[in-house]
Amino acid sequence: MTNDTQSKELTDGFHLVIDALKLNEIDTIFCVPGIPITDLTRMAQAEGMRVISFRHEQHAGNAAAAAGFLTKKPGICLTVSAPGFLNGLTALTNATTNCFPMILISGSSEREIVDLQQGDYEEMDQLAIAKPLCKAAFRVLHAEDIGVGIARAIRSAVSGRPGGVYLDLPAKLFAQTMDAISGKKSLIKVVDAAPRQIPAPDSVRRALDLLKGAKRPLILLGKGAAYAQADADIRALVEKSGIPYLPMSMAKGLLPDNHGQCASAARSYVLAEADVVMLVGARLNWLLSHGKGKTWAQDKGAKQFIQIDIAPTEIDSNVAIEAPLIGDIGSCVSALLAGMGSNWTQPPVEWTGAIYERRDKNVAKMAETLAKNPPVMSFQSALNVIRNVVKANPEAIVVNEGANTLDFARSIVDMYLPRKRLDVGTWGIMGIGMGFSVAAAVVTGKPVIAIEGDSAFGFSGMEVETICRYNLPVCVIVFNNNGIYRGIDVNASGGADVAPTVFVKNARYDKMMEAFGGVGVHATTPAELAKALEEAVASGKPTLINAVIDETAGTESGRITSLNPQSAAKNK
Ligand code: ADP
Ligand code: MG
Question: Are residues 392 and 430 part of one domain?
Answer without folding.
Answer: yes
